[in-house]
Design brief:
TATA-Binding Protein; 3 domains; Alpha-D-Glucose-1,6-Bisphosphate, Chain A, domain 3; globular; 6-stranded mixed sheet; 544 residues; alpha/beta
Length: 544
């Protein structure tokens, strides 16, 4: 077994085009580091509906140039098999380690396969790539990004010609083509022949952002903005300037791209401590709203000053409801959609407005495919407010729409919190929370799911479980997925493994009836207690 491992590693080493990962692997072989070599060569990084995502390093279980070249060759073969010979593939990338290299390798492979390749001019937000696919009439797009993952990670996200991310069966068909790639030495990779786009694509995207806002709407909200060491700053500032908003005050320490993300443990606005610098800036600048993008700027976070005078993050479900209410007030028509792990409040808002509503599986690859979509969101800070322009979540246009909403409320002497109170009185207080467990050993997630399937809880927080669904069987409205859904009296719980991180994620919602604004303090206290108790009981049931 040791000899086989060494043989596989040396075969990989002979084909690896990257001097850095070649040196890394050679050092592991020289040291005869069986543990690390086994971790690198125990399989291959799996290509799925999230594309590829993993830790940078040498070997088939890491993200590196060799893995990316194979992925690009498989994607090219799939596209040609679909009749897209000679079609255009647009490639974007963020500012993470190796992103530019992976983008260039992809362009070379596409060109060598007879397809046309065009690379965005520099590191830009993922929504610009999603826009460019439709704008340029491409047959596919690739975004090199690991979104909000830790600095050591990178990823490879694939879109098809409709501008939305891949879903089954395309993912399995592309994976099969990747598996069929032989020696990298046989994959043509010319040194030139692809196009590097100019700023006209970005200009077209920015012009499209104008469509997000209502004509002559107030543009007075003052904001503090953090790019979270990512690529969002320049595009967001340009969009805000076009729209006529006051220039956002930047969180200087996080304004410029930095692949090491030095001020945060995880570059995700949802993670504890990630917004601390933004809040410190807000205490000095006294804005109306704090806005944040994740590193590839497809997500948007918002924070407001609470009744205690300090700043607090709005939950993704709160922002999702606020944007929906704003669009309804503006007279939006079309379907409002969300993932199953998001708050049921959206359904009530849509119902009251007489608008269609749909639930999908988790991920914008599903939300974006809803027929007649006008607005889609999921609780992980993802919002699609202009599906005709960007058929994916877009943190730039979501920030614009939030600033417009805050401006309109400001003109009325009100805030986002006042609107949330209105929604609670109209539809009941929908309080959500999440239990997220990060693991080193992925078998712990499988064990927890098995326990819950074999012994589903009869009650949580004293609330009887009225229905327990194993979503691997699918439902009338949803295809099969690895998840569990528990319906309780006045509450709902969904448990699923994360598709992009080593986490078990549990999504909790309780609904407390409210008849008047005076009821809200007591309702919030009741909801918080229920959510805490559900977390406690769920952890016990899952053994986590």
């Amino acid at each position: 077994m040791h000899d086989d491992l060494t043989t596989r590693a040396r075969t990989w080493l002979a084909e690896d085009p990257d001097p850095e990962t070649r040196a890394e692997l050679a050092a592991l072989l020289d040291a005869d580091d069986v543990t690390e070599l086994t971790a690198r060569f125990s399989g291959t990084l799996q290509f799925g509906t999230a594309g590829l995502r993993g830790e940078l390093g040498a070997g088939p279980m890491r993200m590196n140039r060799a893995v990316v070249i194979r992925a690009a060759a498989g994607l090219a073969a799939y596209l040609k098999g679909q009749g897209h010979t000679g079609g255009l593939v647009v490639i974007g990338y963020d500012a993470r380690h190796k992103s530019a290299d992976f983008a260039r390798d992809t362009a070379a492979v596409m060109t060598g396969a007879g397809l046309r390749a065009a690379v965005l001019p520099r590191p830009l937000p993922t929504p610009v790539l999603a826009f460019a696919i439709r704008h340029l009439g491409a047959v596919a797009g690739v975004e090199v990004t690991a979104s909000h993952n830790p600095p050591r990670d990178n990823g490879y996200k694939v879109y098809l010609g409709d501008g939305s991310q891949i879903v089954p069966p395309a993912d399995a068909e592309i994976a099969a083509e990747i598996a069929a790639v032989g020696s990298l030495n046989d994959v043509p990779r010319p040194d030139a022949g692809w196009e590097t786009l100019d700023d006209s694509v970005l200009d077209a995207y920015l012009a499209r952002t104008d469509a997000v806002l209502a004509k002559d709407s107030p543009r007075t909200a003052r904001t503090v903005y953090t790019a979270m060491h990512g690529v969002g700053k320049d595009v967001l500032l340009a969009a805000f300037a076009r729209a006529g908003f006051p220039e956002p005050v930047l969180v200087a320490e996080q304004a410029e791209p930095d692949p090491d993300f030095p001020t945060v443990a995880f570059p995700n606005p949802e993670e504890p401590g990630a917004m601390d610098l933004a809040f410190a800036t807000a205490r000095e600048a006294e804005p109306d709203l704090v806005l944040a993008n994740d590193p590839d700027a497809d997500r948007c976070a918002a924070a407001v000053k609470g009744t205690d005078g300090d700043w607090r993050m709005l939950r993704g479900d709160e922002v999702g409801a606020l944007l929906a209410a704003h669009l309804v007030r503006r007279g939006a028509t079309g379907t409002f959609a969300e993932s199953i792990v998001s708050s049921t409040l959206l359904a009530r808002i849509a119902e009251q407005a007489g608008l269609p509503h749909e639930e999908t599986l988790t991920g914008f690859k599903w939300i974006a495919r809803v027929e007649g979509l006008r607005y889609g969101y999921e609780e992980a800070l993802g919002y699609c407010v202009d599906p005709d322009g960007v058929r994916d979540k877009d943190g730039i246009t979501a920030a614009l729409l939030l600033a417009e909403l805050a401006s309109g409320l400001k003109e009325e002497g009100r805030t986002l919190l006042d609107l949330l109170d209105d929604l609670a009185v109209a539809h009941g207080l929908h309080a959500t929370d999440q239990l997220s467990v990060r693991v080193e050993d992925l078998s712990l997630i499988a064990d927890a799911m098995r326990r819950l399937r074999e012994n589903p809880p009869a009650e949580l927080a004293g609330l009887p479980v009225t229905e327990a669904e194993d979503l691997t069987r699918g439902t009338d409205a949803l295809p099969p997925t690895d998840g569990l859904r528990y319906t309780l009296r006045g509450a709902r719980v969904i448990v699923r493994p994360s598709g992009t991180e080593p986490k078990l994620k549990c999504y909790l919602e309780v609904v407390v009836p409210v008849t008047a604004r005076d009821d809200l303090p007591a309702a919030r206290t009741e909801a918080a207690a229920l959510l805490t108790a559900i977390k406690r009981d769920l952890k016990a049931a899952a053994g986590i």
